[in-house]
Specification:
Blueprint: E1 6-9, H1 17-26, E2 37-41, H2 43-52, E3 59-61, E4 75-79, H3 96-111, E5 117-120, H4 125-129, H5 136-143, E6 151-155, E7 160-163, H6 173-176, H7 179-196, E8 203-206, H8 220-234, E9 239-243, H9 245-248, H10 251-256, E10 259-262, H11 265-276, E11 281-285, E12 290-294, H12 311-319
Parallel strand pairs: 1-2, 1-5, 2-4, 3-4, 5-12, 7-10, 8-9, 8-10
Antiparallel strand pairs: 6-11, 11-12
Length: 324
């Protein structure tokens, strides 16, 4: 099938994602793509939310087939049943099966190679994942039966970050940190940059402890991080460190490196979001397809207010212009 579509799973129905989508279509972002966009979710809910937010566009229900020809003149959607009373409701467990069904359809199309890649809207980790998975990164890894753990990359064309441990309590980070995970993630990112972006990336790896020092006899830097760097250098990967995280994110280093590898979630995502705001996207590497999501959550506080910033979703869609 030529011109395979980019799938967008709508995710949590009671989030700001539909509002962001409407803004994206109003600004004609999909029309500038060389691929069609295909939503997966409830057409009825989307129409209801569109009316509530006072947007106007044609929604076209699609029965997907191998030889289907799509364009981005309309909002194309594979309709998934979802029962609701109001356009925007309080988040609950009621949407769990609906979200799961949306992902099932998307993964089936991707497995059959009828789609090019996946963008997903935000979900509630508390409700949908129910502590069974650390995040959608891990959820998709299990659903696609990947043997190796996937890699989370928060990507901006000028600089990106990767947390080795993702959505885990800070007290558990040193317990689950390993050479195997560091090596796996750096190799995944290195392959992605070389194969998809045609760049040989420069990596900086951060320490775990303040100033890369510990009161313990053997620090995580000495036991785990430095041996990982040594191994990766042997694989001809351009990597330096460990650097102290408190001084790393200065302008000079942002220019000198392509990717910073951090040991835990907030160590790298806090400075990344401070520097780039909404101009970054979340990539999952190591899956059989490209998965992208905007770097924001469900944002219940702004639900239905029509004031959310679509920049990260625009970046997610435009990302597919960079890759083949």
């Amino acid at each position: 099938m030529k011109n395979k579509p980019i799938l967008i799973v709508l995710g949590e129905p009671n989030s700001v994602f539909s509002e962001l989508l409407f803004k994206v279509f109003k600004n004609k972002i999909p029309k500038k793509l060389n691929r069609p966009v295909l939503l997966i979710g409830s057409a009825k809910l989307l129409q209801s939310q569109m009316k509530a937010l006072k947007y106007f566009a044609d929604i076209k229900k699609i029965k997907f087939s191998k030889n289907l020809k799509l364009n981005n003149k309309n909002i194309n959607i594979v309709d998934v049943n979802y029962n609701f009373k109001k356009a925007f409701e309080k988040i609950s467990y009621n949407s769990d099966q609906y979200i799961n069904n949306c992902f099932k359809i998307a993964l089936r199309l991707l497995k059959k190679k009828l789609a090019f890649g996946l963008i997903n809207g935000p979900i509630s980790k508390t409700h949908f994942l129910k502590k069974k998975y650390l995040g959608i990164t891990e959820y998709l890894s299990i659903k696609t039966k990947m043997k190796k753990k996937p890699t989370m990359l928060i990507f901006n064309p000028s600089f990106s970050v990767c947390p080795i441990t993702t959505h885990v309590p800070l007290s558990n980070v040193s317990k689950i940190l390993s050479k195997k995970k560091i090596i796996n993630d750096v190799i995944n990112i290195n392959n992605f940059y070389k194969k998809k972006l045609k760049i040989k990336p420069k990596f900086a790896i951060l320490g775990l402890n303040p100033h890369c020092e510990s009161i313990k006899k053997v620090s995580e830097e000495d036991k785990i991080i430095k041996p990982s760097i040594k191994y990766l250098l042997g694989k001809k990967i351009n990597i330096k460190g460990p650097f102290s995280a408190d001084t790393f994110f200065c302008k000079k280093n942002l220019i000198s490196y392509d990717v910073a590898i951090g040991m835990y979630h907030d160590q790298v995502l806090t400075p990344m979001k401070t520097i780039f705001n909404f101009d970054a996207i979340n990539l999952t590497l190591g899956l059989p397809f490209i998965r992208v999501s905007p770097d924001h959550g469900i944002n219940s506080i702004m639900l239905g207010k029509n004031t959310s910033n679509p920049k990260s979703l625009i970046s997610s869609i435009n990302f597919f212009k960079k890759i083949k």
